[in-house]
Amino acid sequence: MRHPLRWIAFWTYVLALFLPVFIGSDLKGYHVILIGVIAFVDLQWILGLPWLANLGFILAFRQHGGLPRTIVILVSLAMASLVWGIHFLPQEGTEELIGVSPDWGLRIWYAAFVILALDAILGGKAGIPRRSTQRQKKKDKQEAPREEVLES
Length: 152
Hints:
Elements: H1 4-16, E1 22-23, H2 29-41, H3 45-62, H4 67-81, E2 88-90, E3 97-99, E4 101-102, H5 104-122, H6 131-143
Antiparallel strand pairs: 1-4, 2-3
Helix pairs in contact: 1-5, 2-3, 3-4, 4-5
């Protein structure tokens, strides 16, 4: 495996989809992703921006190294941080709000963003050779002046 932190982040994210997200609610991660779409369209930013962070996670996961990937995951991490401000959720079929607090699913979901951000920041320095580096070394070897044996 070339990028172990990237895959750890991915499987952490997948695990969070099946865990309860809030204490006081029976919502699982995949429910919250569906609700987040509705909240985003309905302009409920405190619920919609953390959902938008999921798209940034997927985009950053699919990109390969570099500054754009690091920027995407850091912006996504900032949007995902807004989830810690959610203390009330609308109840189904009513306009009443129920109080909630973060459960393991939410914590693990956020940890996936942190792990992917670490991969983006430390990826080049984590001892994982990049293709461009390998190509450059090969090119340098080919261009190195060959020593000529002087015949005496």
